[in-house]
Amino acid sequence: MRIETRGLTFEVTEGGPPGGPPVILLHGFPVNRHSWDDVTPYLNAAGLRTFAVDQRGYTAGARPSGVDAYRMAECVADAAAFVDELAGGRADLVGHDFGALVSWQLAAEHPERVRSLTAVSVPHPAAFGQALLSDPEQQRRSSYIDLFRMAGKAEHVLSRDGGAGLRKVLDGVGDRLEVYAAALLEPGALTATLNWYRALVLEDLVKVGPVARPTTFVWGDRDTAVAPATAAAASDQVTGDYRFVPLPGVDHWVTDAQPEVLAQAILARIADAA
């Protein structure tokens, strides 16, 4: 299905029984809404109505030009609109990678729209931003961002040789690698999705307030992009009920690698928030 909001048209994969409790799922870079395809059947079987949305930049109908169109404030406003349009103003929220950053910020700034939060792989923006500003280990792990912020060069590195660089970034996602790569190799897609990195202001991340909603943070201990200390710091940014679920031997691609384990963590959070 598609929804039109904020002047853009977003692609959505819906599932589960009509009228079931709504769950909004937000993906990260460089994947898309299909990263939830192995997770949502477990949620649907439990009676939940799921909506996995392609965020701005990931489909032609929601691909505004210019870096400023991808600032976190815009992406968070999109997520608020998704909750309003798809869930009647309140939903359980699940986000991975950049989708986690958006979800954390929406829960902090608009708690009335978030029944519960399950964030995957990336911790609270203040914890992540502070680590990027001051922790050498996290800076080392996030050094790839320097390339992604280079307009033109990043697109060339990722798309040359038929997208070999992009496929290297996607190594570990499994059978959906070509689905993700093909979508980002469409004209304009790489620039739009990389603009999320170019619009990122670390000082703004640090200013995001604490989350009071019931929250679970799922993180794979083999995640090369997020240091253990950065992941642990998320707990300092939650004033509501909080659960940290580290996954031994799992890398950044939790949605593709461990969909059932992730689904059980989501279901437990939603049940506990009842």
Automatic annotation (TrEMBL):
One MF term in the entry's GO annotations: hydrolase activity
Classification via InterPro entries: AB_hydrolase_1, AB_hydrolase_fold, Epox_hydrolase-like
Residue ranges occupied by any AB hydrolase-1 domain in the UniProt entry: 21-254
SUPFAM superfamilies: alpha/beta-Hydrolases
Pfam families to which the protein is assigned, alphabetical: Abhydrolase_1
Record key words, sorted: Hydrolase
Protein name per its UniProtKB record: Pimeloyl-ACP methyl ester carboxylesterase
Alphabetical list of PANTHER family matching this protein: EPOXIDE HYDROLASE (PTHR43329)
Biological source species: Asanoa ferruginea
